[in-house]
Amino acid sequence: MEILNAAQTRAWDEFTMQHEPIASIDLMERAAGACYQWLMRNGFQGGRFTIFCGKGNNGGDGLALARLLNHSKHAVTVYILEFGHLGTEDFQSNLAALHETETDVRFISAPETIPAIDPKEIIIDALFGSGLSRPLEGLTALLVKRLNQSRNTVISIDIPSGLYVDKPTGTNTVVKAKHTLSFQSQKLAFLVGENAPYFGEVHILDIGLHPEFLDNSSSSFTWVDKDYAARLYRPRKKFSHKGHFGHAAIISGSRGMMGATVLCTKACVRIGAGKVTAHIPMCGHTIMQTSIPEAMSKIESGEDYLKEISSLENYNAVGIGPGIGSHEQFDLILESIFDRFKKPMVIDADALTILSQNSALLKRMPASCILTPHPKELERLFGTYTNEFEAIERTISKSKEFNIIIVLKGHHTMVATPSDKTYMNSSGNPGMAKGGSGDVLTGIITGLLAQGYDPEKAAVLGVFLHGHAADLAVKQVAEEFLNPSDVIDHLGYALLDLYPKIS
To answer: Model pTM?
Structure first.
């Protein structure tokens, strides 16, 4: 699914009106009907509603919803922000239709006309939609602050009023909704944590916009859901053997941090690499041989930490970084690996720290390397940022600059590629916020690379499977008790759920 900006969303509406064809007011009716049906299916049937409307098309949606609620015998009161001018044509048409019903319609023209609301009322926010481009101020801002001070359930239509779609909202006044009923496609505003206090639970409602629009337009952002991820999976052929699925190397571990190597290597084995060899210091030998009998170990020089790395020429992919520490000479090891190994590579954890301390190494990375930083690691690598939109822009620009793939980990992990395509992941949950989760992800992506997935698809599919396995795991254990090893254990179920034909 494409993630569209505000201009593209409006263009999709226009395309639908021209090619279905359908009048704009009928499309508005369709949107209001989808909101009405959602309310009736989700516990709000029989409730009392107070709907706040601006005079744009978002307000028109609110008026049409009010009429539908009135027709089904719900108690509805409508408040319209009044600044002495007419609304849009569709707004005015819906207002005229609403006046034909018994709905109580009132106007807010001054602070003293802002109503006190019964706590039992369900508030519908239809003040401003996704076209808003400036902060709320004056009477409008005062109204929103009053709504936010109430204890009522607030449901926003399209997007919480005051929230920007494609840029930081900052300290602007914004409606704090419990639910947001948006239309047809995800919005970038719903995928950044700094906006989480405003949109609550987001529900994307299908209002039948013309599907051919997406065939003739392109978005920089793609929403990776189960259907999209399933298209990336490559089923195995019946006469396959382990040589068809590659040999992965995991360069990892130091004294006291061999757990990272265990998790990373187990994930690489579980995701299906034909063979996996862990390059480890001597202190990890017994741990690895007893923890992961399916993997091989290559004991490198160094008792407590890696001091050099032997030949990598026979591997199809390398994952490097989990638990290696940040010992001084490791920048030379990284430099040597970059010079010798030109196949796909995942760089994570302590290896990212080493990169951030030696900017010259960034320029020596082979093309299509996959970096997997969390937000703080991103800052150490590429400089500080002031908001999540800036972090997204920074990640995309650095992906292009260095011709690499960057997996920025978070609630909606982002995969930025040099190809002008950025992916936002839909799977995962807060139970993954625990040490070791990143090590598992490194192993998953490395294992997919070893099997011959190209780096972009390996990163996108790996991120989705990582989160989807965690989502399946928390059906059996609370998020607080989810461990990274549980995610590994559920990877097979995640793939079965993604692609049932393999069962």
So the answer is: 0.96
